[in-house]
Protein: Glucose-methanol-choline oxidoreductase C-terminal domain-containing protein
Organism: Amycolatopsis acidiphila
Amino acid sequence: MDIKVIADLPVGQRLQDQPGYYNAYALAPEYLDMDPAVGSLLWTASSQAAAGELDLHVTATHLMDGSLSPTGGAIVLMAALTRPESTGTVTLASRDPDDPSLIDPNYLGTERDAARMLEGVKLGRAIARNSEFAKFVAAELTPGEAVTDDDALAEGIAANVAVYGHPTSTVPMGGAGDPWAVVDSVGAVKGVAGLRVVDASIIPEVPSSTTNVTVIMLAERIFQRVYAG
């Protein structure tokens, strides 16, 4: 695009976010006033998790508008892959800074990610069929009771991927020998004087929880190291 290169860095080449799937249920009529809005959160390890890794998250919550349910109320068991290995890209569309960037999130871009996501959704469905939970449910809305085999379920997940909206790692932090590093340990952009990045984009890999607290921690730590002395 004929833009002068000041530093040749891999910006936007390791986008990560946490994909998920809305396994939705119609609430039984006698439980339409269920409260609180978020009822339960579960972190667990998939069968392919690394040692000590909690790579799956299932949350039971009212993420779906009740008007979409035949009973007037709905609950969702959202399964999410909190430690994906897939990476996407963010690139410029043009020289005009007002033009939206081109974003390819590449969710479930590896066989391992797809397999772990399937495992998470199956775990959520098993929870919904547990006798303690099943009494709250009138019917499964998505993917629906007719979807019973793994291949059909995997296709449904891939066609209806949800996302937590925790994008990270497009200008990752790293050491001198890291080929993917764009900034150093205090957010300074390599090869560019006077430019620092302090947000979720410098996190080398998406964390297993929400990014809000992580970014606050990064900002406070970098402030202490660079400016508070």
Q: What stands out?
A: The two ends are 41 Å apart (CA to CA). Helices lie at 111-129, 131-134, 150-159, 211-226. The longest helix spans residues 111-129. The chain has a mean pLDDT of 94.
